[in-house]
Amino acid sequence: MPYIHFTEEQKRQANAVGLVELLRYKGEPLIRSGPEYRLGSNHSVTVRGNKWYDHAAEKGGGPVTFLKEFYGMNYQEAVLTLLDRDVSELCPQAAAPREKVKKPFELPPANQDNRRVFAYLLKHRHLDREVLTTFVRLGLVYEDQKYHNAVFVGMDKDGIPRHAHKRSTNSQGKSFRMTVEGSDFRYAFNWPGTSGHLLVFEAPIDMLSFISKFHDSDWARHSYVALCGTSSQPLLGMLERYPNIENVLLCLDNDEAGQLATRRLAKVVRDKGLTVGARVPVLKDWNKDLCANFEQEQEVQHEQKLS
Q: How does pLDDT run across 87-140, given as a tens digit for each residue?
């Protein structure tokens, strides 16, 4: 393609195209996620207005870079596509985002008991009761008052809450999960141990599932962190706060996004001069492995009763 000179106004117009409308125009499935949308084909990528961000690769940009990154276009092809008359008419320019005042972090009010959280995490997620009780007693897991969500709290070294991740406790229908506004991701759901080992997971329930599946009397000696996604911030926060950590085991999901994040985080750890390894669940994540084991045990017990 011969060189095309674009004016500054054309460049501005191209990068102002609303990405949500553009993706719908191109037939891309989108999943609502709070004020944003996730790509149906890649859940680690979110779009909002004219911005996109890949949480697994930790990079983002505007419409031009989106078309280059995900549609294989060069710069000129991307700009021409965005300036196309059909695109301009069907995909109006995104409104300038309103400046958002960051709210101070505050834990959701706790319910008077944790009945629904225990019922959901024990009966439907099959977590170990002793492990779950340990986290609940320390205020690391509780049930919120308004919606009865499970709240997973991340604390600093002084036991002060700095991060919270909420997940619905409904076992049927669409699930809900979100990070509480004002959370500091350096302190995402974690357990600081005394050994030099740190185990890293994507979600709090996966972290608790792994401990439930493999725990012994020494499980609490090791350190654990749930990224609440695939960001490197919680991992780096743990390494900064606990210099005794020498070995990192990445236990992310067994899917494309999880393994891509594993490779990226492994480099982060190696650049710190630490030893890094990986352990992958048999199924998609550690809770699915735990639930599958529970079902197998139930079948064995049933067969033993019949024999």
A: 777 777 766 556 556 789 999 999 999 999 999 999 999 999 999 999 999 999
Separation of alpha carbons 21 and 26, rounded Å = 9
CB 210 within 8 A of CB 221: no
Strand-pair category, 275-278 with 247-250: parallel
The pTM assigned to this predicted structure is 0.78
CB count within 10 Å of CB 163 equals 27
* pLDDT, tens digit, 9 for 90 and up, residues 125-154: 999 999 999 999 999 999 999 999 999 999
